[in-house]
Amino acid sequence: MPLPMSINLKIARHLALARLRKNSARVPIVLMLELTHACNLHCAGCGRVREYADTKHVRLSREQARAAMLEADTPVVSISGGEPLLLPDAPAIASDALELGRVVYFCTNGLLLAKRLKEFTPHPRFYFNVHLDGPPEIHDALTGLPGATERALAGIRQAKEAGFHVTTNTTIYSHTPVESIVALFRQLADMGVDGFMIAPGYHYEVGIPAATLNRPAAHEWFRALHALWGDKRLYHTPFYLEFLRGERQLKCMPWGTVTYNPQGWKRPCYLLTDEHVPTFDELMDGTDWEAYGPGRDPRCADCMLHSGFEPAVMDSLHSMHDWWQLIRWQLGK
Predict the structure, then answer these.
(1) 166: β partners
(2) Residues whose CB is less than 8 angstroms from the CB of residue 154 and which lie 6 or more positions away in sequence, other chains included
(3) How far, in Å, CA of 258 to CA of 283, rounded?
(4) What is the pLDDT of residue 319?
(5) How does strand 264-268 pair with strand 257-261?
(6) Do 170 and 135 form a contact (C-beta atoms < 8 A)?
(7) DSSP 3-state of 103
(8) Alpha-carbon gap, residue 112 to 82, rounded angstroms
(9) Are 312 and 253 spatial neighbours (Cβ–Cβ below 8 Å)?
(10) What pLDDT was estimated at residue 208?
(11) What is the pLDDT of residues 267-285, one digit of tens each?
């Protein structure tokens, strides 16, 4: 299921102009703007709360966030954390991103969504993106908080009733039954949720209790999901979904999604942290991008996250059939 055509055309135009202006094919699509690493949950599968445990009290100011958006100049900004709704000026930062013409995903665990919803205004380019890893028996266990699922669902209901776009983000682990995710998607679809993002969990270097899938196991899991659910409301290109099922090869483009947080620009990618650098130009020009990805860095062997592989889709289109498939997907056929 694609974004509205008007938004996809806006993103495509932004990228085309940026590539001409910078004379480079390496133009990021998404800025992950991590306002804080403080969180009101301690999820079993989250590397952030472990990696940044010693600096979780540090946060980005509104001025720093705006400067990062201007520096990276990506068409999409994903406001995240930690939990951004812990910060009083998070709604203002989202407004700044919209004012700059960005497509905005506001990533949240949903616990504070109902409480703070009135501080936001619906906008065609604004999406609440709520993290849900399954129905209560799975999500509550992963978060360690009984009732976490129902609180998130309550926030989603209120957001939809108030006229907001809402998507969800789901991470799959080795113990996640396919049927439970199908049941979750059916419930969310009945609630009017606009679309679902989904990816296999990543085995962070900091060590997490949640068991992740290796690549063959992930292929098997996503083939089973496709058999039961198809591609309905999945907010991914058909080619990335084929990649998840092992039906297409994609090369990781780690620069496709860049991450800025209170420590600086995260090198090399959203998942791996070799260092933080002070400027966007230093990140883009000083990183050996060819050193990363499956077959090049052992840490990347089982990674299949959309942040690196979805940006590679356009470079993978080698036939008229591929282009026709992309057009039909955009038209919703």
Answers:
(1) 128
(2) 114
(3) 9
(4) 61
(5) antiparallel
(6) no
(7) strand
(8) 13
(9) yes
(10) 62
(11) 999 999 999 999 999 999 9
- Alpha carbon distance 223, 218 (integer Å): 8
CA atoms of 219 and 251, how far apart (whole Å): 16
Q: Is-contact 252 292, C-beta < 8 A?
A: yes
190 CB-contact burial (10 Å; exposed 0-12 / middle 13-18 / buried 19+):
exposed
Could you give the CA distance from residue 12 to residue 330 in angstroms, rounded to a whole number? 13
pLDDT at 269: 96
Please identify every stretch of the chain with a pLDDT value under 70, giving residue numbers as ranges. 1-3, 204-210, 314-323, 326-327, 329-333
- DSSP state at residue 209: S
Domains in the chain with CATH codes: 5-330 (3.20.20.70)
For the chain, helix, strand, coil in percent to 5 are: 45, 15, 40
Structure tokens at 8: 């996809």
Beta pairing partners, 199? 171
